[in-house]
Amino acid sequence: LQHGRLKVRTTAEQQEAKRKEREEKLKKYQAATGRLFEKRKNAEHDGEALDLTGKILANNSDFLTMWNYRKEIFQAFHKDKSADEMQELYEDELSFLGTCLKSNPKSYSVWEHRCWVMDCMPRPDWQRELQLCNKFLEYDERNFHCWDYRRFVVRRANIPPEEELKFSTDKISSNFSNYSSWHYRSKLLPLVHPNTGHPQGVEETAMLQEHELAQNAFFTDPNDQSAWFYHRWLLGRAERDQSIRCLHVYRPLNRLVATFSKHIKVSSSTLNVVKDGNVITGRWHTPRGTDTYEQVLIFDFPEHSLTCESDQHIHVT
């Protein structure tokens, strides 16, 4: 107070006060970090280390080294604690991670550590994690970190792909501008509507429905790119005529490598290699030597059938 009135700080005074406050916080941060590096070097895995790493990560959740140290601490705890005690510790860790995600929902380190915790818990609650994903995707439906975590949870919880496809449809219906949800559909469709006649195909009826969904999206908002990208993917799934895209002859190994526009199976193909007008007897095989659908096949010429003295005309029919 000055003459009975509250003294108002000037801008310069405010800046100086903030500077001193930042310096004080930085000193404490550096001291705690140094202490933790020393404890980790000495392989000290105790409650103090867990508490200190928590304080550091609460202010900087992208500090991956501290998350790794916490993993080491939990692994050490497993040696002395019961399953019930570890369950409680992991529950506390999930709560702490939830706090970190609220302030930094797109942190690679936090989502990765949550995956690790769930895999280590004696009794993980996957349905709760699915609800957590729903909540975060309500805040930001384009948070691809959360979408990645959701796929992890779905795999662990054995959620049917049909349910996830419906979830994707609901998210797109609420907001067409959702790259992650469109991308998720591209992974789910071959599982939900497989085309048994093609190794990587999608059932024609489902494809037509997807085209209609994409068209509704870009007619609603023609300037949004997400639906257009998905539409390009759909067109790329259409049946293409088989053709040879590239031929390469390697004389030292008497070998020809052919790249095709579509997957082809050696056992069901009727390919002929013609050299200077004559059909060559040789062996077709895949790079891995398996009788599977591939886009690259290899043909072995008979020994000494390729010469370097003159040009030779080779084609495949």
SSE topology sketch:
Elements: H1 11-41, H2 47-59, H3 64-77, H4 83-103, H5 108-120, H6 126-139, H7 144-157, H8 161-174, H9 179-192, E1 194-195, E2 201-202, H10 204-220, H11 225-236, E3 244-250, E4 255-265, E5 273-275, E6 278-280, E7 283-285, E8 293-300, E9 314-316
Antiparallel strand pairs: 1-2, 3-4, 4-8, 5-6, 5-9, 7-8
Helix pairs in contact: 1-2, 2-3, 3-5, 4-5, 5-7, 6-7, 8-9, 9-11, 10-11
Write a short abstract of this structure.
With 317 residues, the protein is α+β, with helices and mostly antiparallel strands. The chain is built from eleven helices and nine strands.
The biggest beta sheet reads: 4 strands, antiparallel
Strand order of the largest sheet: 3-4-8-7
Shape: elongated
Radius of gyration: 30 Å
The residue fraction in helices comes out at 55-70%
List low-pLDDT spans.
Answer: none
**Mean pLDDT, rounded to whole units?**
88
The secondary-structure element order is HHHHHHHHHEEHHEEEEEEE
Ends: how far apart?
Answer: 97 Å
- How many extended strands? 9
Tell me the fraction of residues in β-strands, as a range. 5-15%
Tally of helical segments: 11
The assigned structural class equals: alpha+beta
